[in-house]
Design goal:
With 242 residues, this protein is an alpha/beta fold. The chain has a single domain, classed as TIM Barrel (Alpha-Beta Barrel). 31% of the residues lie in helices and 23% in strands. The strands form four sheets. Strands 3-4-5-8-12-13-14 form a seven-stranded parallel sheet. A three-stranded antiparallel sheet has the order 9-10-11, with no helix packed on it. Strands 1-2 form a two-stranded antiparallel sheet. Helix 2 (51-60) links the parallel strand 3 (41-44) and strand 4 (65-68). Helix 1 packs parallel to helix 2. 40% of the residues are buried.
Length: 242
């Protein structure tokens, strides 16, 4: 299990910038989350060679975690049968990594049913707004983040996952503007990820998101090599705001 800085994972050039590499297996983390009732965690396969590790995590908590990374309509059912509650998909929905394919969006929802799909709209800042980024957050697409975009895609998924790729893995604070935009939309559940550096950031997300935006915490967490947020404190906070 690794924590990396967003946008540094590439097929060419140097390897990704790693914040932390754990000596604990993915199944051990999944079992811990299961014991603490932290449903809906994300198992993300960052590149090839991670299928076995993903299957280990899903087997430790069948139906308790989502899986993403290389998901298509062709393999989605396979991962649901492996124990994922949902499949998370981004890049495959975009032809040439740039143009959103509504045909693919519909195909995936028809294949596994929309209530098992999480559409990942991870994005980068572009001018005054945000644009969805694919291919490990390296390619900007033609799709902006807006209430209209969320409305357009909501019938084909159960949830949205939105990484703020510019701040992901940096522990430098959240993208408050993006959180506020997501909180103003009152459709499907939305999970924000990126830049959480303190318990205060969690409170800010809850406030700016109007209680509608969930959050993932990575590099700042003590079990992932961080020091700013204790895992026990996070579990306690989650129980209070649920």
């Amino acid at each position: 299990m690794k924590q990396i800085v967003g946008g540094t994972l590439r097929d060419d050039g140097p390897g990704p910038t790693e914040n932390f590499v754990s000596d604990r297996g993915p199944g051990e983390f999944a079992a811990m989350f299961r014991g603490d009732g932290l449903a809906g965690g994300h198992v993300i396969k960052l590149g090839p060679g991670n299928d076995e590790a993903a299957r280990e995590a899903l087997a430790a908590w069948p139906g308790g975690m989502q899986v993403g990374g290389g998901i298509t309509a062709a393999n989605a059912i396979e991962w649901l049968e492996a124990g994922a509650s949902h499949v998370i998909v981004t890049s495959w929905l975009f032809e040439d990594g740039v143009r959103l394919s509504e045909q693919r969006v519909r195909e995936l929802a028809d294949r596994v049913s929309a209530n098992r799909v999480v559409i990942d709209l991870s994005c980068r800042r572009n001018g005054d707004g945000w644009v969805v980024a694919t291919n490990r957050w390296q390619t900007l697409t033609d799709l902006g983040i807006s209430p209209a975009t969320l409305d357009r895609l909501a019938p084909f998924c159960d949830e949205f996952l939105v990484h703020a790729a510019d701040v992901e893995g940096l522990c430098g604070g959240i993208d408050e503007g993006l959180v506020e935009l997501l909180g103003e939309w009152a459709g499907r559940p939305v999970t924000y990820a990126g830049g959480v550096a303190s318990m205060n950031d969690l409170e800010t997300i809850d406030r700016l998101g109007q209680g509608r935006v969930d959050v993932t915490v990575g590099s700042a967490l003590d079990i992932f090599g961080g020091s700013a947020i204790g895992y026990a404190d996070l579990v306690d906070w989650n129980g209070r705001v649920d």
